Amino acid sequence: MRAMILDAPGRPLREIEMPVPEPGPEQVLIKVHTCGLCRTDLHIVDGELKEPALPLIPGHQIVGTVVAAGERAGQFAAGDRVGVPWLGSTCNHCRYCLSGRENLCDKARFTGYQINGGYAEYTVADYRFCFPIPEGYPDLQAAPLLCAGLIGYRSLMMTGEAGHLGIYGFGAAAHIVAQVARYQGRKVYAFTRPGDVEAQRFARDMGAVWAGDCREAPPEELDAAIIFAPDGALLPAALRATAKGGVVVCGGIHMSDIPTFPYEILWGERVVRSVANLTRRDGEEFLAIAPKIPVHTEVRPFPLSAANEALDALRGGKISGAAVLVVDG
């Protein structure tokens, strides 16, 4: 099979030919159709997330078809279309796993980080951490649901019933979250890089009632804010824009250092919290609600061999919506 390999952080991915993997007893072998690109992939490739399992096939928003299953992977059969997310396995018996917080498991392993991912023609995955893909979503549009959608949904749930919602960084996750928030009757205020009029236009197209740059104050106080951009300086800005009793959710896996800020912008029972990974329950809930809205994903396709070009476009903020590798077809 063809695959794009990361040999060392900071280096471009390398296209190689390698054997198709064999599924283990609780794994399925998947013919990959599409794989979404995520900012987490950038953090891995650029060395901001430490200790990836090198050499590594990145990618954790995988859509494909099961072609073989291990002897104990009974849930799926050949021909089933499945999605593979970031969370690839957990220990299933620690205090986090037993209390519905498997996203915090100390022994969790992640697709495209410790487990080879979807920048390849085939991959294997633990069947217990795969999801059936809802009908009505073509492979290309389904891929961003598996991380941008899931992490975005978990972040949104952390905001409670906030009616005025700020979103800092309007990319793949934000354009999905905005649709869910609008469906729930919330008002969305989008914050972009200064001068990024294209992202602001895109945010309004996705239902934002206001879009401006991250240095501006919104026209209304926010009840909550979600920060998807990996810029720590946005946290004080979001706190200043958020009303007393509100919450600021950091939705990324990596963020630059947060600058010091005065206690007064945290005071008033404002809350700052992070979102770590996802649970299978998040996936089940979001993939059930997405077709009802229905969530529409804006995608820019790239062939598998252009993975480096796609990562460069994502790194440079040149993607409206989500970038997706088209691996098969």
What does this structure look like?
The chain has 329 residues and is α/β, with parallel strands linked by helices. It folds into two domains: 2-146 and 278-326, Quinone Oxidoreductase, Chain A, domain 1; 150-274, NAD(P)-binding Rossmann-like Domain (Rossmann fold, 3-Layer(aba) Sandwich), CATH 3.40.50. Helix content is 22%, strand content 26%. It has nine helices and 17 strands. The strands form four sheets. Strands 3, 4, 5, 8, 9, 16 and 17 form a seven-stranded mixed β-sheet that branches. Strands 12-11-10-13-14-15 form a six-stranded parallel β-sheet, sandwiched between helices. Strand 11, helix 6 and strand 12 form a beta-alpha-beta unit. Helix 4 packs across helix 5 (172-183) and helix 4 (148-157) crosses helix 8 (280-289). The two termini are 15 Å apart. The model has no long low-confidence stretch (mean pLDDT 96).
Number of DSSP helical runs: 9
Q: Radius of gyration, rounded?
A: 19 Å
CATH superfamily of the largest domain: Medium-chain alcohol dehydrogenases, catalytic domain
The major β-sheet equals: 7 strands, mixed
Spell the H/E element sequence. Answer: EEEHEEEHEEEHHEHEHEEHEEHEHE
- Give the percentage of residues in beta strands: 25-35%
Helix share bin? 10-25%
Cofactor: Zn(2+)
Keywords: Metal-binding, Oxidoreductase, Zinc
InterPro entries: ADH-like_N, ADH_Zn_typ-2, ER, GroES-like_sf, NAD(P)-bd_dom_sf
GO cellular component, one term: cytoplasm
